[in-house]
């Protein structure tokens, strides 16, 4: 509540603020704002008046609001620029004795809160109704941000897909390399076994030949498994009667019948038929068990046609 001192004179009673001056100028911080405002008759912003008066913007705003309520100051709202508003401009209202305008000292509260940094009223902070241009620009910014996020999400999705495909290719190449290395090791061992077995055939070493053929058959199974793992395909197996004679057996029998008075080793027959000696040896053992051939010598093993075999024995199962 403002403290008012009333004095009586012969003409009339006059009032003056307790903290004002004799000429009606408000005292304290409001007086500094009043001086700065009157020093800018063409108008000034809150920031400019705060710099000129040496007070805070909150103090300037509070004093200007009081001046405007008393009809001593006018406010020109700022204009929209598309990205915001320009600051409001404050200007003093010229006062004369004829206008009967109120004294500035009576328009400013004289309590101790006049010089404090109170928050400005909502209508004097420079924020007003949002202009259509400002709203349109804000909507455009939101639209652009949505487009940017969508593009970033799509770019991330493509990058993740490409990375997944790259990893799949790398994994496939690693598996292929491992499978090829396994096949190389198996084939190297198989080649060594085949070479050793061929040497045994040349030396007519039946024991080494048999052992070599068994090893080759074992490696052949490993080769089939490796081929399935490498290519993803299975080697088709023949179906039918497994007890049916091999096509090699009739050829061996025909060779013995063609030379009934001669004895042959498996290696000799294999050279003539261009087959492996192990397979020929197996065929000869079968012919002996069937009575179609005779083992004439154990070491080296020699065979001849049985005396009772006829010319058609080669075609019988």
Automatic annotation (TrEMBL):
Keyword Coiled coil: yes
Coiled coil ranges: 142-180
Superkingdom of source: Bacteria
GO molecular function: DNA-binding transcription factor activity
Domain HTH marR-type: 36-83
Keywords noted in UniProt: Coiled coil
Positions of region (Disordered): 1-33, 73-131, 226-247
Biased composition (Low complexity): 1-24, 87-117, 228-242
Pfam families: MarR_2
Keyword Coiled coil on entry: yes
InterPro entries tied to this protein: HTH_MarR-typ (IPR000835), WH-like_DNA-bd_sf (IPR036388), WH_DNA-bd_sf (IPR036390)
Segment forming the signal sequence: none
Record-given protein name: MarR family transcriptional regulator
Organism name: Actinomadura spongiicola
High-level lineage: Bacteria, Bacillati, Actinomycetota, Actinomycetes, Streptosporangiales
